[in-house]
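Changelog note: in this version the structure field was regenerated for every chain. One regenerated record is shown below for reference.
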Amino acid sequence: MTEKYGKNHPKVVAMKNAVTKWMVESLHPFTLVEEPGLLKVLEIADSRISLPSAKTFSRTLVPELFEKTVAKMKCILESEKPTLQALSITTDMWTSVNTTSYLAVTVHYVTKDFALTSYCLGCKAVMESHTGEVIRRELRNILTEWGLLGTKVLYCVTDNAANMRSAVTLMPDITQLFCFAHTLNLMIKDTKKEYSGFDKMRHKCKSIVEHFRHSAIARANLHKRLKQLGMRELELVQNVETRWNSEYLMMERLCELKDALVIELSQPGCRIDNLTSMEWGLVDSYVKVLKPIYEATLQVSSDKKPTRSMIIPILFGIESRIKTVIENKQQGSTLAKTLLKSLRSRFPMYMEDQLNLICMFLDPRFKFHILEEPQKKIILQKLETEIFASIKEVPVGRLEESAIKNITTSATSQLFSIFENSSCQRIQTNKRTLELQGKLQLEAYTNEPRITINDDPFQWWQDNRFKYELISPLAQKYLGIPATEVASERVFSSAGNVITNRRTRLLPENAETLVFLHQNLKSLDV
């Protein structure tokens, strides 16, 4: 019999660490290490290696990895805090299949090198009623644990629920922002409530989809019909009540497969009601009018690019598209009128939202592209004020160097000739000089050509951060603010794969640990 390695042998330690990470990254249960299949693989790879029990992984190895990960994250956050301009968090509540409620909190910021960074700070079980005070207390505890309260400008993105509104209102050191995607969803709900016959049509659509998804014979006949008609053999999309996008995708797919569906639903023995011609028209109108909103929700759910800067351009584009449909009396104009009314109700005066206007201006994809002169002046004045307030914190040496460069290249008036001489003598860095430099940088940035919508704004700022060193801290501050709470929803997607019907007895503290590790390990070298 082959002698086993000791528990501290390098190969055993390496294997334990690898299996622990694999377990949390791939959301495997602790009992994975007792599966005969895995044990057989290990025996073939090296029969001298033996893994600890599932209990050892759950009580020792995973908690140890958790502590290392927390320490690593705290070290990173502490080292980056001095150069950060602002922090943003998202938060939301979720109830698992075993009826335990969890509060997710994620943090987002842009580093001095313009890397968009985010972490999951926690997915904590909440055993009390979800009142605003309880949520406030839990949220404050999490932020305090990570040392994030009272250090930087702090924004918090939540949904529109009353308890979330109340919780953040009770925290005066945090600026509350509402999830853009959630408000878009509410806008669509408003529209559907006012549109006659929509609920009946949607119910029939769901019944059609369920019929073909639950009946193997019906599905096979549909695919046969698609092939006969020379159409792509696509599957129908099922609606998920909590996700508006899934309803849109369901109806979009029904429109794509309409010809084959109409034939199959008219076959003898089919007990599912087909849509009337008027209902098919409503489905088509729904897809056509709401497509820009569907595309918008995808854009603002990105975790790679700025998203709050997109809110005004997106709303402007949606409103313009809706008006075109109405003015040209295109198909769906009745639905478009209802949607326009809802948009103006949910997003009143959106073109005057100063935070979103600043974010848009600092995004080199947009700047002042759709703004009128009065709005431009307001934003520039606001940014000048912020620049003047922060000038004293900028290193003098770099300011002098760029002041010479900006003034000699940007100024044409003789007024500034006194700042030049043949030897480029040191400029006296008084407040007036620096304020002038800030104005010149804002003017130069405004006149820079916009980059394309597919370009990376963070890469642009990384390349130009020294050229616009008085503006770049503002870009770092504002471009990291999320438009949505999608990051928290992603945490719950992971949590739903951890706490399943087969793992309902998983302790809340173990669930918290597993979700935290799953969300953060991919971006940390632990």
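Spot check on this record: The longest strand covers residues 116-126. The beta strands are 86-95, 101-110, 116-126, 153-158, 175-178.
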